[in-house]
Amino acid sequence: MNSIYNINRKPFANFTKKLCSRWLSGLRLSIFLLVSMLSQAQEKISLEKAIELAKSNNIDLKIADKEIERQTVLKKTAFQPEALQVQYQGGQFNSVDFDHNVSVQQYFPIGNITKANRQLQEELVKLAEKRKALSSYETEKAVTLAYYQYLYGVSMQKLNSELNDIYTKFLKNAELRFQTGESGNIEVISAKVRVKEIETQKAQLEYDLVIYQKQLQFFVQTDENIIPDDKTLLQYTVLREEGNSKAEGLMTDYYEQQISVFQKEANTYKAMRTPKLGLGYFAQTIDTKSLFQGFTAGLQIPLFGGVNTARAQASAISISQSQLALDKNKLTLNLQRQELENNFAKQKKALDYYQKEGLQYADQIINTAQKSYAKRYELLVVHQFSESGN
To answer: Is the separation of the CB atoms in 216 and 228 below 8 Å?
Structure first.
């Protein structure tokens, strides 16, 4: 009975084996096609291309362009005459007859008020340009950080894959050693824990890469699923700049331009204390006869100029505030630069050791361990085979 059962079971087992093999082949093909579709849907771009796209798509930079355009248009408002005054008078103001009087009067700014307004508007245009330059630099920095963050995640993923291969082999060896009684169960448990940790890290890294990709996509501000080119080297070259750094230069230019705006604003308020010249024309009838004409001239004198004086003083205070903000930001940037330079030197020293010595030692340790485990594995297999033969 048992022999007949064993003979009849073999065709079914072979059929099941073939079915599983075909199913696994189909699964591998489906996964391959899915990965291929995802890789095609994502566009690999260089850092320079990502920065270029970000600067052309960034909403804040487009708003900054509109602000420059707005301030440029406002330059036309430098000359600010008063509204034209047109007045009609009718009645018995000369005699018992009903007469008519029409007068037109226009006041014009005199002195330096028009020049001061023009200079102020020109400085506001420059300030908008400085603000855009700062926004452009911040966009470039954000895209660069997100770009290299993704590449760092890719490198960590490769390292995780290598560790998974090593510890998977170690687990197999530990299980075989436990089966032959050469080691205890604690070695198997430790290996399993380490493999599970690596598998968990693998899943976390996959989520991290999605997050990094979305961060880059957010800063570039595009609907396309762009990813960094993984051929880009994770090697940062320090650019030794003479004098101030780019960030410090842009920040200094912005605050100095802000100070210049407040200075011109104060000059504008001071110029508003000057009188305005008025010119007029009138035409009227007298005793309903003829048309009598004449001209008028006058001045608008700001007797109560305390408002503009106070505004000029407020602008002077704003100048002091901008100067203090400039000094504070210079100090902050200087301290941050020193901190980053020290941290960079520390990391560079560790990197130099890793590249010159650490990698070699690590390769030697891994190769020696793998050879040792491979030799033990062979001996254990031979031992198991000999025992099963006996």
So the answer is: yes
At residue 298's C-alpha, the angle toward residues 296 and 302, to 5°, is: 160
Rounded alpha-carbon distances, angstroms, from residue 298 to 272, 304, 330? 17, 18, 52
Report d(CA 211, CA 233) in Å as an integer.
21
Question: Quick one: pLDDT at residue 40?
Answer: 46
d(CA 250, CA 259): 14
Give the dihedral of Cα atoms 321, 326, 331, 335; nearest 10 deg: 130
| pTM of the predicted model as reported, rounded to 2 decimal places | 0.73
Q: Which residues contact 129 (CB under 8 A, 6 or more apart)?
A: 68
User: And the tokens for 195?
Assistant: 């493999």
Whether residue 65 contacts residue 132, with contact meaning beta carbons closer than 8 Å, is answered with yes
| HEC letters along 198-240 | HHHHHHHHHHHHHHHHHHHHHHHCCCCCEEECCCCCCCCCCCC
Q: How many angstroms separate the CA atoms of 277 and 108, rounded?
A: 5
Q: Does an H or E element contain 88, and which?
A: strand 85-91
User: What per-residue confidence (pLDDT) applies to 10?
Assistant: 43
> Residue 155 to residues 103, 145, 162, 233, 344: CA-CA distances in angstroms?
83, 15, 11, 10, 20
pLDDT tens-digit map of 345-370:
888 888 788 778 777 777 777 777 66
The structure tokens listed for 345 are 């030197």
Task: State how far the Cα of 139 lies from the Cα of 173, in Å rounded to an integer.
Answer: 51
Give the model's pLDDT for residue 9.
Answer: 40
